[in-house]
Each structure stands twice: as structure tokens, then as C-alpha cells.
Amino acid sequence: MSFRHTWILLLLIIQLGLWLYWFLKIKGNSYPLISKKIDKVVARHLNFSRIAIKNNIMIAGILLLTLSAAGPQIGTKIRPVERRGVDLVIALDTSTSMDAEDVTPSRLAKSKLEIGKLIKNLKGDRISIIVFAGTSHLYLPLTTDYEAALLFLNQIDSEMIPTQGTILSTAMNQALESFSNDVDKFKVMLLITDGEDHDGKAVEIASKASETGLIINTVGVGSKSGSLIPIKDKNTQKVEYKRDSNGNLITSTLNESILKEIAIAGRGSYFWFANSADSHREIAFAIERMEKKTISTHEFSEYEDRYQLIGLASLLCFIISFTIPTKNKTKK
Length: 332
Hints:
Low-confidence stretches: none
CATH architecture of the largest domain: 3-Layer(aba) Sandwich
CATH superfamily of the largest domain: von Willebrand factor, type A domain
Radius of gyration: 37 Å
CATH topology of the largest domain: Rossmann fold
Strand order of the largest sheet: 5-4-3-6-7-12
Helix content: 25-40%
Number of helices: 10
Number of domains: 2
Strand content: 15-25%
């Protein structure tokens, strides 16, 4: 048993204190403010036993009314809560090319910012995160704990995958493994990358994935003009730029064409993380329009309000108290 407004219970202590004062100091004198002689004359016409019963019932009514106002909650009530959404797998490219700064502050940092905003706008969807470069890794399994997802997201950097390079197909295969035991719909993948691909199998795998019900949306990060790839020394904080085997500076550019082909093959859409746009809103809108499934159903036990019966008992006490006669019947 609990009370919704526990502070009202303090009034019960005050009422009990007043009742004790009345019982100890005033008992035996029906009218304490007048003289005893007058009290004896008046007392001839009163029935003190009925007065005591009347007062006790009145006090009980006040106590019950106070108890009812405190909002007693007794027992439990089972309430089913249904969560509906889709299963969303975010595959984030963590290769060194994502450190390019043609998008402020960098491609990877911009991606993490937009993903964080997207997660905060999800409603009931399960989310999973895959990080990939030359290989892929299931970084966060499917979950509805968005706070945990944001914590995991903040820890992602371009040094997580030791095998560098970018193989888009590894991320897709990892996503397919995550959904291997699920139904044929309500599944969506968000592939976030600058479009570099050293494998060439991405479009073919996207087509096969779409046949299993997995929708693949792609998100391009970067610019067509491209940018140099900075390499920072952790000890000296000195910044150099990545070079090829011949010593020439490497310029990483956004490959939109491959990402659009993957989106078409995966029956999804292509998006672009740019400096001037909140692209997460477009992605969130696309996910919101998708058909939802029941992801989980919870039953919450909560106390049920029971003030009604106590309030009714208080009302009955008042009615009975007012109807009890206190005068003696006079003999004719």
C-alpha cells in the first residue's frame, strides 16, 4: 500500500493531537466555556452517551476524509504497453578517409552528429550499429536503449578497425547476419560512408539483401571536390596528410554514383550529410513512413487508486453523525 500525496498524512497527526486534547481536557463538561451550574441545567436535556457516539463517528469521518485525500493506492493493476517500430542497422564507415575535413568538423564527426540526432528522434524502433573499414564488426546489437546507443556512438573513431581500406560488402553481410532469424520485412539498413569501395561487390549484395526484405538506404559524407586525409600524431599533435606509394598527396572524394546504385539495388533511398542541412530529419521521416511491427510488449504493474471507498465511508460517517439525536425524550 502506498499514498499518492503522503504529505497529507501529516494532518492525521494534527487531528489525533486535537482529539487527545479534547479527550483529556474537556471530557466530562459538555460546554467547557460556561459555568458548571448552567452546564448542569443544560445537561438535564442531553444524552451524553449519544453525544460521545456522535462525536466519535464525526472524528472517524474526518480521519477517513483525510486518508482519502492522501490518495491511497492498494493492490496492482496490469497495463499492457505495446512498442511498434522497425529494426534499424546503422553501418558507419570508420576508415581513415572519414577523417577528411571537407565536411565540418570531419566526415566521421559529422556522421556521428547526424546519427545522434536521428537516434533521439526514433520512436520504438530497435537500433544496431556496425563499424567497418577493411573488415566489419557488430559494435552494438539490436536494442531499444537509445541512451546506451548514444554512449556507444560517442566512442567511435577511425582507429577502431585495424584493417584499413573500405569494403562496403562486409558491412552488408554483417547486417544480413544480424537479421538472419527475423521476418522478411520491417528491416532497414543505413549505410554511411564516403563511397570508397575496394571490393566492387556492394551492388550485387544489396540486390540479394533486398530479396530478404532488407531495405538499404545509403548516406554519402563528403564533397565532390574532395579533401586531403589528415593524419595526426598523438604525441606531438603534428598533422600530416596521407600519401600514396609514390609520395603524392591523396585526395578523397565523395563517390555518389556507387551509393546511388546501392540504394536502388537495395530498394532504398540516397541521402547526403552536408554542412548546411539536417539530413537526419529526412532519414527519420523515411523510417517513420515504413510499416511498423510489434517489437515488444511489456506489462507494467502499478498501484490502483482506492480513495473512492474510503471517501464513501467518510461520507457515511458524516451522515450518521448528523442524524443521531442528542436530546433526551421529554415525558408528558
